[in-house]
Model the fold of this input.
Amino acid sequence: MKYTTAGESHGPEEIAVIEGIPAGLHITQEDVDFELARRQRGYGRGERQKIETDTVTFLTGVRHQETLGSPITLNVHNDDHNNWSKIMAPNAPATSENTLRKVLRPRPGHADLVGGIKYRHHDDLRNVLERSSARETTMRVAVGAVAKKLLAEIGVDVHGFVVNVGPAKSNLNELTKYKSLQELRNVTEGFETRALNQEADDAIREVIDKTKRDANTVGGQVQVIATGMPVGIGSYVSADDKLDGKIARAIVGINAFKGVQFGGGFDNAEKYGDQVMDEIFWDKDKGFYRGSDNLGGFEGGMTTGEAIVVRGVVKPIPTLYRPMQSVDIDTHEDHKASIERSDTTAVTAAAVIAEAMVAIELAKAVLDKFDADSIERMKEQVAVYRAEVKAF
Done:
């Protein structure tokens, strides 16, 4: 399985093409639209979410709500393009009228300046920000929706939520009271902040409100948990084959993500071996299992069968309504950075995007190991493999 996305932030369309999804997977527009709506919701999002209502159209690869085994093309129309059609016109030459919204003062922390230098966009850094914008993650969530449908066929569930926004935190000790990800999902999706309880929701809202009043932005952390993955997916043979390594790359590849950890992560650096290693047990009914999950479901780059636990660090959004120091690329004079329409925080949306990226990497790994032509044959092979693992 592989995919690519295309489209600019204020362009007419966002597009993704997925190759390698088996034939026979039941998928509907509503399945994808549901995930797209989750991405758009969240406390701290900006005005654009009131303009756009993201809905997907299947252009290829799906017939009668079933995948064909051929490339799947997903399309999401940008409603906001109506306000930018002249500025983003691909077939009209640049004029004084259609280049009114030039970006000449790069934002600290954004791709503006480095991208302009790299691609020689001397005249307008909008050529950078239109693609580097997190609007592109719309299509990653759409691809993730397809991946989640595939994973559900073999009993794998994936869910993301917010750990903290600035100093306001969820109490992760509460995770132990949930018997399934669906129970956890019912709670976190009930809060606009995707927090674990009302107290954390109130605290996070307070931080976001204050940040907005201060014309500032704020970051945080999100966590993704996946259950039901078969044992031994991934490999220790080569660094490129380690599944946790692939997931780490996918998480840090999301706009504004600056760190990733598995299980106890960085806290494990302050502990001793007997506090970190997940002891091994055996039971006649379920075979080998671990007594804890400090390593986040991975050993040697392979899944252990325990819950996969991934956390990502999201930096504050670079666009501040109280802009920071910058330099005009045309005159080289000191100026405040450009201001583009933005969110106070995107951490609530980042939980959904991180969830999608984990699902994509898990789906890729499953399809690397099992049949990728037919969904029914894949399920048969997974069932046989699970039985083999249990009998080991």
The domain at 2-391 is CATH 3.60.150.10 (Chorismate synthase, AroC fold). The longest helix spans residues 347-369. The two ends are 29 Å apart (CA to CA).
